[in-house]
């Protein structure tokens, strides 16, 4: 499962429609929703060597377009979303 999760990566352009914090037990997730209703998280990941999620999430603005690099699968019953690891203004 882990290999499938990390091998499912891609680059695409999105329009940020909404940003919010989603509660997950005792923790909160940074969540970005694009113009098509796709949901992404922005979180640190040891295996991807991505440790700047707070800065990345803070730099993304609602109403603006970004070219993002993400990985992961959407697994609804587990509450798993693709994770954004890079975003550059488009």
List keywords for this structure.
90 residues; mainly beta; OB fold (Dihydrolipoamide Acetyltransferase, E2P); 2 helices; globular
Structural features, described:
- The chain has helices at 2-7, 53-59; strands at 9-24, 27-34, 39-41, 65-71, 83-89.
- The longest helix has 7 residues, at 53-59.
- The protein has 90 residues and is mostly beta strands.
- It is globular and about 30 Å long.
- It has a single domain (2-89), classed as Beta Barrel (OB fold (Dihydrolipoamide Acetyltransferase, E2P)), CATH 2.40.50.50.
- It starts with a helix and ends with a strand.
- The mean pLDDT is 89.
Provide the fold topology.
Layout: H1 2-7, E1 9-24, E2 27-34, E3 39-41, H2 53-59, E4 65-71, E5 83-89
Antiparallel strand pairs: 1-2, 1-4, 2-3, 4-5
């Amino acid at each position: 499962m882990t290999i499938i999760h990390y091998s499912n990566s891609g680059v695409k352009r999105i329009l940020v429609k909404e940003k919010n914090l989603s509660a997950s037990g005792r923790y909160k997730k940074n969540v970005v929703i694009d113009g098509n209703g796709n949901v992404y998280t922005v979180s640190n990941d040891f295996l991807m060597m991505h440790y700047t999620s707070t800065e990345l999430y803070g730099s993304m603005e609602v109403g603006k377009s970004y070219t993002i690099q993400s990985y992961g699968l959407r697994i609804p019953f587990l509450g798993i979303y693709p994770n954004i690891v890079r975003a550059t203004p488009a």
